[in-house]
Amino acid sequence: MFVEAVEKTGRKTLIIAGTLTSVCMAFPAVSAIQEGYKVYCVVDASGNWSKLATDATIARVAQAGAIPTDTFAIVAELMRTWNRPEGSRFAQILAEHVCPEYKCLMESYDKAQEIAKNGPETNLDKYQ
């Protein structure tokens, strides 16, 4: 039933995560690759009982042809560009839930956009 639902979408790229990296992520990933799908395995959205088990699973799915990745990279790749109406909301979600340090980059980007639009602030501007 799940396979039929995936086939009906017509998509050939899958993003997979699972409760256990070595089972819930790996098994469907390897099966999908064998069926001709391009598969991204979101490793940090999956768990495991040991680092060794996770490392072995990453090697296994990569050898099978999957692309191991993380949540931040997947969201960024799905966005393709942040210059979209929903871009700032996605950036906020990333900063709040995935990578708090990303907020610094957001602030820097906003400042650069402000300078591009209004020109740089000078010391003389402070006295007007």
Automatic annotation (TrEMBL):
Q: Which InterPro entries match?
A: Hydrolase_YcaC-like, Isochorismatase-like_dom, Isochorismatase-like_sf
Q: Where is the signal peptide?
A: none
Q: What is this protein called?
A: Isochorismatase-like domain-containing protein
Domain named Isochorismatase-like is located at: 2-71
Say which domain of life the source belongs to.
Bacteria
Q: Which Pfam families match?
A: Isochorismatase
